## 1
Amino acid sequence: MNKRQMFGQHVLHDSSIQDIILNVSDANNKKIVYEIGTGLGELTQKFCSRSLHVFSCELDKDLYYKAEKKLSYLKNLTLIQGDGFFQKIKYNILTSNLPYSESSRFIKWLSAQKFEKAVVTLQREFANKLMAQPGTKSYKAISVLAQYLFKIEEIIDVHPNAFNPPPKVYSKVMIIKPKFVDKKISPDLLKYLRLIFSFRGKKVSTAIRHIIDQNKAIINKSNPLILNKRVEKLSPEDFVKLFYEDGKQFEK
């Protein structure tokens, strides 16, 4: 197993999928693009051809140096070597072919970002989880967080052969847009969501007794319709009503 496979890195080389990502991004000469994962720079070049400026971050040093040499002619490109989740960059459009191991971390990170649109390639199973409906097996804490904060749209399934090396699973190209102009969610919200989902199959009223005893959480107990539902049946909006006190507890 080479280093790239070990860390879940699969470089998208299919030019038709790259073009779809570029076209649905709405990149133009007034937009700044942030790319997490330069890879071999093929998609990077295409974004540079349409955008005002592109910031592209690559964690893998070997890929970074290859891209630096290959893309040195591009005047509207800034290459960065490092973890894309730790860069302080102002941008309009985000694009990334994320390592599958980073998917949940990505959604948590994205919840604190200001952006217009993200076009990302995710493992199909994780993408389906983000869009899962209440009561289904795939409906998780991360589904609640993503659906409350974002408008999510699937664009196309991507065959493993579109990547090098090919992953063992299919992927999806997804569009993610923020629902709110200026709302950030505390990490505590995701913590409590994961905790209450550990009581899947139980009534909310039963689950929150354990949460209050263990974590001193502020719970809104004024809505009997929510309290009498099963945990996995709550909508994202129901969860927010449950955990927010006057809508403020988990807002930064």
## 2
Amino acid sequence: MWKAFSSKPGWMLVIVLAVVVSASQRAQAAGAGAAAGPDPQKLSLTVQKAVNFLATSQDQDGSFTKPAGTGITALVTTALLRSGRSTHDPVVAKALSCLQGYVQKDGGIYTPGTTNQNYETCVAIQCLVEANRDGRYKKQIAAAEKFLKRIQWGEEQGKDKSDRFYGGAGYGHSKRPDLSNTSFLVDALKSCGRGPEDEAMKKALVFVSRCQNLETEYNTTPFPAKNPDGGFYYTCAGEGGSAAGKTPEGGLRSYASMTYSGLKSMLYAGVGPNDPRVKAAVAWAAKHYDLNNNPGMAGKGLYYYYHVFAKALDAAGNDIFIDAQGQKHDWRKELYQAIAERQKPDGSWVNGEDRWMEGDANLVTGYALLALSYCHPKAHAK
């Protein structure tokens, strides 16, 4: 379905253009108003409708979609904080109080008995960091970070660098690692202020690099040779796996939500724009630029995709994204339009493709708000 770019010299121009918009291009685009982003008033109204919806969908104990564990509560609360609600807001305060009840003795923040210890703790850390304006959650954040590092696959778990599990995170202790969970781990580490020199970040980068369809010194797994398109798939561990399935040659298909997760994670881990891994990921994204679908997965995981799309392009520092046809995209404006046109009258969002819980209005509205937080014109969100 997707052909390798490596044999086509013309891709090099696309790659260079897509990775970083030069200073002269930025100035030219700004002068022409090409990267204006969405209309601030319209963006504000869209966000406010969503915030109002979430305020009415909170459970009595402060949670959101409690049967799903703490993850949605933490994600939604982070979205509310990033959308202008303060820690003193009744909805936010109630949700934060609820999360406090899930702080475990081992430092993790998760539902007892869950298999989602890594995911739940990662999103809880990001929530508490967002709420930590007065330092009240400093000790809990530090303990949760230590917990995440203990369950990350590495030497302490009997895995050396040659093992495909190495550096990854999965659903709880002793579970197969995957790029989604590892991406959440990288996000949590970054929110704690960790950068390229952090050992856990270095280990995560090893795993992330092995989930890319690109043969390099960083990835000697057998998967990219069968589909060397530069994108990312779900996991390199074990026999490997991709939610998008396999190519006729037996390769693991790349798809957008994992490609942007991989790109964002590499950038957070300090990989530069001229690194072959970043160039290849951006080239894949340029070839498959689309905000109506999650490329490679159609409508499945659309709002997760919107969120990582926004984070990755924001991390890259590009106001304008240039696709493989040379078309310039004011991605903040286009992302806002794609999200806004899908908003329900009550302010929520729901994905008709109910995979990965995207039939849940709280989760999807949280994803949408987080994506929108990166859409403020010229204001790179953190």
## 3
Amino acid sequence: MQNKTKLALAGGIAAVIALAAAGAAEADWDGPHRWGMHGMHPGMRVFAMRMTERYDANKDGKISQEEIDTNRTEWLRRFDTDKDGTLSLKEFEALWLEAHRQQMVREFQFFDKDGDAKVTLEEYKGPLANLVRDHDRNGDGVLSKDDMRMRHKHRPAGNDDGKDKDDQEPSDQQQ
């Protein structure tokens, strides 16, 4: 990848992040560390809380442009290992990994159901264990575009008793 392409990619990513931060900074606030969260989509609540965690340097529940700019300046300096005032792709990778570390830890904790600081195969498989069963609208045993088209329709004919196969008695299930 050429340097110009890398710089354009990094610039594009920075622009998206800046736009998201600017939009979030104008959001309605509802007290310390709470961005007017009533009526806010759950994903936006998480975004707002993470923005506050990262940028609210003085912990007053508000994010100023100065706090954002100071944070960005400090992070660029921290990860600019060759001290040329820019981030190479390798330097940006280190910054990105650090910025997303907390998200990674939260996801690990989501999988580690028993809290033993280890994720077993069963814990890892758990969240998707019934994905096909729960979303296979046409009953063919796989997920496909047909299932997406049918997402608002009921299960196919042949199981019109209102029960899923798993809700039936074992002797009622087809082999």
## 4
Amino acid sequence: MHFEGTQTINAPIEKVWTFLMDPRQVGPCMPGFQSVEVIDDKNFKARVGVGVGLVKATFTMDMAMVDLDPPNRATVKAHGVAPASAVDMTSTMNLSDAGGATSLRWSADVTVSGTLASLGARLMQSTAQKMTGQFFRCLQEKLEAEPAPSGS
């Protein structure tokens, strides 16, 4: 499956880049997020629960940030396994300054195999689109929030 889109985030490009490069910050925006373990500055593991219709699975994802061009471009490659299912994903983000805001152009290629793919195939596209929408709403909420006032 191939997905792509463009989001405008009302935050400076450096702030968006820093947030997206920190798995501890961006992880909780992933629908079904359970945990993240940072291996080093480019590799991490995440546990994510996914449900497609009545089929539910928890994936352990090995994720690597590759092809980094701060603060303009990043690619994330991921491989995840769950009982009787697997997922492979390559996602690319291109950031550009949009007059104080950030334009985030993204694409993702996702391959799901096993039980989740065979039983949830009809619903997979709409489920993925719904999850993508939830992710970007969370991202915008976190990045566009006003900083807390400092103590007096």
